[in-house]
Design brief:
This protein has helices at about 20-35, 45-55, and strands at about 55-60, 65, 70, 75-80, 85, 90, 95-100, 105, 110, 115, 125, 130, 135, 140-145, 145-150, 155, 160, 170-175, 175-180. It is of the alpha/beta class. It has one domain (about 20-180): UDP N-Acetylglucosamine Acyltransferase, domain 1. A 7-stranded mixed beta sheet has the order 2-5-8-13-16-18-19. Strands 1-4-7-12-15 form a 5-stranded parallel beta sheet, with helices on one face.
Length: about 190
């Protein structure tokens, strides 16, 4: 199998991944599929330690379940006291930044990559995703490439975000739209 490359019929064709990145991805696949995946559920610190060995910026208090799938861990940043649930997919072709005190629920999918459908070669696009602080991405929800989710947002179960979501709102649907403000008991939005 050959390494993925940009189309060779363009004058300035470049590789999508360096040799070092390809080697790192191969090693990560082996570690993720064995040591990470089969670690006991409660060994959150061990899994964050493993991710940091692969270049991820993961706060020591973050908690990731062993069934989380992570592509390109060195593009991942996770803040303090954030939880990533079972079978969530963090597809970090572009940078994925998850703030503090967030919850990414089971089966949620953060997809920081797509393809340019306007080009015949369908080239890969690495597009960042940012989740602010205090965000909840509910079960089976999807956040697409180049999306910024504001502080305090709740993205409802099975909803899909294809554009930016404003802070302190509850967003649902396909595509997700704000339906009402999120107000925490005893706290005003943004406080």
């Amino acid at each position: 199998m050959t390494a993925p490359t940009e189309p060779t019929d363009t004058p300035n064709a470049t590789r999508l991944w360096t040799t070092r990145e390809l080697a790192g991805r191969a090693l990560w696949y082996a570690v993720e599929g064995t040591v990470f995946r089969h670690s006991p559920r409660t060994l959150y610190g061990f899994r964050t330690w493993l991710l940091r060995r692969f270049g991820a910026d993961v706060h020591p208090t973050a908690r990731l379940r062993p069934t989380v799938t992570i592509e390109v861990p060195w593009h991942l940043s996770i803040g303090e006291h954030t939880m990533v649930g079972d079978h969530a997919i963090l597809y970090c072709l572009g940078r994925v930044r998850i703030g503090a005190r967030c919850t990414v629920s089971q089966y949620a999918h953060l997809c920081a990559g797509t393809h340019d459908h306007t080009q015949p070669a369908f080239p890969l696009i690495k597009a960042d995703i940012t989740l602010g602080d205090d965000v909840w991405i509910a079960a089976d929800a999807y956040v697409g490439p180049n999306v910024s989710v504001g502080d305090g947002v709740v993205l409802g179960a099975r909803s899909s975000a294809f554009g930016d979501l404003p802070p302190w709102t509850i967003c649902v649907g396909l595509p997700a739209r704000p339906v009402k403000p999120r107000v925490l008991q005893g706290r005003s939005p943004g406080a």
